[in-house]
Amino acid sequence: MRQKRIGVILACVVLLLLTGCSTDNKTKETPAKQPVAQKGGKIVYGSLYEPATLNPLSSDMVSAHEVASLIFSGLVYMNDKGEWQPDLASDVPTLQNGGVSSDGRIVTYRLRNNVQWHDGKPFSAEDVIFTWRLIMNPRNNVISRDGYDQIASIEAPDKTTLVVRFREYYPSFLNLFSRILPKHLLEGADFAKAPFNRAPIGTGPFQFVEWRMAEEINLKANPNYHLGKPVLDTISYKIIPDINILLTQIKAGSVDIIGNLDPSLVEQARAIDAFHVVMNPTMVWEHIDLNLDNARLQDARVRQAISLAIDRQAIIAEAYRSAATAAAADQWPVSWAARSDLTPLARNVEAAKELLNQAGWRQGVDGIFAKDGVRLSLSLITTSNNKQRETATRLLSQQLREAGVELTPRFIEIPALFTDVLPGRRFESALYAWYLGPDPDNSSLWHSRNIPGPSNAYKGKNYSGWRNAEVDRLLDQAARTVEADSRKQIYYRIQELYAQEVPAIPLYFHSNIGIVKKTVLNYRPNASPAGNLWNAWQWAHAAK
To answer: Cα separations (Å) of 197 from 57, 194, 280, 538?
Structure first.
């Protein structure tokens, strides 16, 4: 009877997670009149940071990628809904349209006809091959070769066809070739010192005009842009390294958009009448890793109880000024592989205590649960000098104590966390953020072979030490599955197992926060690698 009751409690917890969040609102409202876009004009985009270079292969600075998204194009891009769209390619390669072979190892891109570089030279498949060779050249200092090093060969049967052969199926192939560089300008040039790096030519919606150091980068509309001529005439990427001065210019109306705003400034931004704040969840996932080799944490009911005791919305409201999205698992909420019926747990202290009771723990006179003389007391390691995490840990300690769990925060420097504590699994619980990326492959986090240890030179990222044979099998299967719907069902099952076993406690996804003038149309910030300026050719001022 006792085992049956335990099963019922656990089933109820999972049911709380697997509950849809749609609402049935039958109230009819008169649709608001849609503003009309004004042709032409200028938008000023404010940034705290100046790029070190405008060569998109050489810098991982957000500012460099934002400007590059205006100047350069990729084969495909991801929109703000997490959907892949064709860019220089005429369609997104899939198994169904013949762009991906049955084993996934050969990807064929059909490229658009008559695409031109900003100097009028024709774009072709040879530019893509050249970009790959630039990336793979060991003499060139590029951001990353990940994925590109899985390519065995690239061929161009003709100018508008590109055949990419991988050594083995590489599920994240669409993430590659997000920026293509011109062969006719860079072949034989010094990659690090080429004038191109400060005055680039691309195939994107805007053409480089000038870079006034420490002031602004000016661009003009590309009239021959292959996705359609931009609505605007010009964009100014204005560099203002002081946030207070930047906000002053926003209030004065001399800046139209600020992206990547810190959560601490959200309330101040909301007070600016002529602007509104826009937010969407990023792929940065804040969570608590639980060391499953710790005797207190080996029972899934204990981990479920800790998760149930947390009021995520209260933490988001106080620590992040409501500028975050509660998480149900590690998959980006916009991802095609995220279960829409998996919703974040609502706090339920009584259910948490019931689970602890079922697991054999008893609440002591001090309010903390204990079992066999061992108190349910855990240390929580997180990064220092982070006001949001300081607030979050304070709230977590209070919330868990109300459920009979003692949490003792310990703050350390970021390098120590990622080079020693996590790889060495020298923690009981650890609070930090992780970036998974647009592809749902999370084998680096959850496959048992990626538990850091001597066998993988402590390079694995399964810091919790989750060992689940079904999860291992599913992750291996997903890595071999080419058909998208079949692959999605695999990740759906992994998320269900994650909800049952809670190897780490999901808290929230950070938000991409922007301030936008109310008269600016079509600004839709994107948390994917495409970035905030991904659809700048559609931006416009509302007609007066």
So the answer is: 10, 6, 32, 26
Tell me how far apart the alpha carbons of residues 190 and 257 are, in angstroms, rounded to a whole number. Answer: 35
* Confidence class for position 5, pLDDT limits 50, 70, 90: very low
313's tokens: 């919305």
- Is the model's pLDDT at 222 over the cut of 90? yes
Question: What mean pLDDT value characterizes the chain?
Answer: 93
Q: Are strands 161-166 and 206-212 parallel, antiparallel or unpaired?
A: unpaired
Nearest in space to 109 (alpha carbons), one of 86, 138, 133: 86
Three-state SS for 221?
strand
Which token pair is 299?
């029972």
For residue 30, the model assigns a pLDDT of 54
Q: Strand locations in 349-428, DSSP E?
A: 362-363, 369-371, 374-375, 377-383, 406-412
Query: What are 309's two structure tokens?
Result: 């005791």
Instruction: For residue range 82-129, list pLDDT tens digits in order.
Output: 999 999 999 999 999 999 999 999 999 999 999 999 999 999 999 999
Listed in sequence order, the residues at least 6 apart from 348 whose beta carbon sits closer than 8 Å to its beta carbon are 16, 308
Q: Is the pLDDT of residue 515 over 60?
A: yes
Report the sign of the C-alpha dihedral through residues 126, 127, 131, 137, in that order: positive
Signed CA dihedral, 66, 71, 77, 82: sign only = positive
In terms of Cβ atoms closer than 10 Å to its own Cβ (0-12, 13-18, 19+), residue 145 is: middle
d(CA 314, CA 335): 25
d(CA 383, CA 410): 8
Token pair in block for residue 33: 């009149």
Strand partners, 515: 258, 277
Name residue 399's amino acid. Answer: Q
* Residue 196, CA distances (Å) to 127, 168, 174, 235, 414 in order: 15, 35, 26, 20, 36
pTM listed for this prediction: 0.89
Q: What are phi and psi of 174, to 5 degrees?
A: -70, -20
The string of DSSP letters for 48-105 reads S---S-S-TTT---HHHHHHHHHH---SEEE-TTS-EEESSBSS---TTTTSB-TTS-
367 dihedral zone (left: phi>0; alpha: psi -120 to 50; beta): left
Strands 377-383 and 406-412, bridge-based pairing: parallel
Question: HSE (CB half, 13 Å, CA atoms) of 467?
Answer: 9
DSSP class per residue in 432-444: EEEE--SS---HH
CB 55 within 8 A of CB 196: yes
Closest residue by Cα to residue 538 from 69, 68, 47:
69
